[in-house]
Specification:
31% of the residues lie in helices and 34% in strands. It is an alpha+beta fold and 176 residues long.
């Protein structure tokens, strides 16, 4: 399976007020939006802004556990998009072992941990083909439709509106 390394460009809100994390491949200028929960959005945004709570949040706690037990998060992969669900894995190296252990994870949790451990984020070419938005294009690839949103507008239309908005948004060249 071909994989593309991506970076987190930021957290956004779709027109239905649902948070998403926006992954970006600088080489091809493709964006992959992944809808996430509000708590995960806050966690990712806090890490992007280098802010910390007085007490560890869940992703901070997991990062501390991995570090203290000598487990390295080598990379995270977003492997699949099926039935409107994204699938991801954590790739862990225990101690000085050469083998990697692959653990199923939600993409939002995997991304939050990757940011905290400086692990690479890889997305399968298949996922990029299904859900990616090419920033230079004027017509964007359609995603499989999701259930109707609270506003009554089909989410695919919302995503297309979001994609059109990306044309006018300066995402900067700042590496996060």
């Amino acid at each position: 399976m071909a994989m593309i390394e991506m970076t987190v460009k930021g957290i956004g809100i779709d027109p239905s007020n649902n948070p998403l994390v926006l992954l970006h491949d600088a080489e091809s200028n493709v964006f992959v939006p992944i809808w996430i929960g509000r708590a995960e959005a806050v966690s990712i945004q806090m890490e992007l802004e280098s802010k910390q709570q007085q007490r560890p949040m869940t992703h901070d706690l997991i990062t501390n556990i991995l570090r203290d037990l000598g487990i390295k998060l080598v990379k995270v992969t977003v492997n699949d998009f099926s039935d409107l669900v994204y699938y991801a894995s954590l790739h862990l190296q225990i101690g000085r072992g050469e083998s990697l252990h692959e653990i199923d994870a939600r993409p939002s949790d995997a991304i939050a941990l990757a940011l905290r451990t400086q692990a690479q984020i890889w997305v399968s070419d298949d996922v990029v083909q299904k859900t990616g938005i090419q920033a230079e294009e004027t017509a964007y690839p359609a995603l499989p439709e999701r259930a109707e949103s609270e506003s009554g507008e089909a989410p695919i239309e919302e995503l297309n509106r979001l994609a059109r908005l990306l044309e006018d948004v300066d995402l900067g060249d700042e590496k996060r």
